Amino acid sequence: MKPLxxxxxxxxxxxxxxxALCALDDQAxxxxxxxxxxxxxxxxxxxxxxxxxxxxxxxxxxxxWAARTRCVEDGRRRIINVVLPGYLVGYPGLKRGLASxxxxxxxxxxxxxxxxxxxxxxxxxxxxxxxxxxxxxxxGQITRLGRLNAQERIxxxxxxxxxxxxxGGLAREGRFTIPLTQExxxxxxxxxxxxxxxxLQQARQAGELSWHGGQVVLHDPKAIRRKxxxxxxxxxxxxx
Amino acid sequence: MKPLxxxxxxxxxxxxxxxALCALDDQAxxxxxxxxxxxxxxxxxxxxxxxxxxxxxxxxxxxxWAARTRCVEDGRRRIINVVLPGYLVGYPGLKRGLASxxxxxxxxxxxxxxxxxxxxxxxxxxxxxxxxxxxxxxxGQITRLGRLNAQERIxxxxxxxxxxxxxGGLAREGRFTIPLTQExxxxxxxxxxxxxxxxLQQARQAGELSWHGGQVVLHDPKAIRRKxxxxxxxxxxxxx
DNA sequence: CGATCCATTGATTCTTATCAAAATAGGTGG
DNA sequence: CCACCTATTTTGATAAGAATCAATGGATCG
Lengths: 240, 240
What we know:
- Two copies of one chain form a homodimer.
- Chain A is α+β, with helices and mostly antiparallel strands and 240 residues long.
- Chain A is built from eight helices and 13 strands.
- A four-stranded antiparallel sheet of chain A has the order 1-10-4-7. In chain A, strands 2-9-5-6 form a four-stranded antiparallel sheet. The first copy, chain A, has a three-stranded antiparallel sheet with strand order 11-13-12.
- In chain A, helix 4 (121-147) runs antiparallel to helix 5 (150-167) and helix 5 crosses helix 8.
């Protein structure tokens, strides 16, 4: 077994995120390291899960981005939300559940099996909090679509991504790598790609953000948060 | 203990709905009857639960409608979804969880304590399916807001309500009682009340539905379902 | 009877979609 | 390294959808 310590916690987004949700004990970290040695990958555009499909085991995203989508009859898809490193795919502690939505890899995605909750109460709690946050993000998405205009929707979503990535140490000072195209953003926000483009330019010209070469920088996250009335999602206590 | 039988199952929306989700055994029905004798009520406009509040016990809605809402800083609310008779409020089997959204009574609401999952595996399964359906309805709401125009949103939501009410025997042949105002509908659909009104009139004139005195009739649910591309939510198997 | 809530109507403005096309970037193979 | 191909971003012109503002009519309730 690999040696454990502060450095290994700090360097892996998966462990870092789960540890931020609930302080992990040695058993949990050991189990995670164990699984992190047996990763498998899914190529960009491939499905991790298909709506209605039986879920044989719960997985953890180690690297890369994926999207929960709803497939619609006319061929277009709707992006429900985004799945990031350190996030669960499937239902911890549940055998033979059915997927309620399709999950597609946006980039190449590295996965591992999620260690069973039984290895550590702390890990079980981290899973529970993770799931509660997922639900909170769904509510956030509904609020976004129902209440905000195009400009606010974009900034609100970017802010959410920033906050979510920060937990895994994948974003700092308003800056992160975004593998989404403007078209995907449009799909997630119920807008057309053309309009997303215009709103992004407008925000750029207002000096609120920059987005080039897959790098996003929010110049003043707090100001954006104030503007769109976004409440920061708490992680100190479980939401359910 | 009261005598149990087909008639008592058929006549109570709570038991009827849970029984439709998963065939209940005598233990479950007895426990439910037991709790149904100790109901308590919440007046219209009062809160059943406030966002962030600790949930002491899981409840069942016996009669009346409520709404999950997100309170926003500017005083306006967003309706996330609607809670109907036979639905759970809170998290079965979880002590000390925190509410992820505020639940407000739309009409006077009659509640009872949800019997513990441990009284019957069938009841536990019915709860699990109920929760899975709740998540599916959140996904449906996101799809609605992101993909449909005003006319379709309204009809899609009414269709969802019809299907959900049918499970509790509270709707038949496209007809049900709706305690929502057009303003609430607008809040749930991300539209203005004025626009909802116009779209309803348009639908009425097209002979697609009628809505008078709190009674809604969808004249051809199947046609609407085809038009808005709505997939009927399955209940025969758990979605998670 | 006034007060209040809800549904309805009209006129106008603003936001966003739609259609079409050009420019740019990124990747691949020669 | 260049030429080519494809995906993505950007631009422009126009139309449709929904919001906004303002006001009226109908119920219902104390």
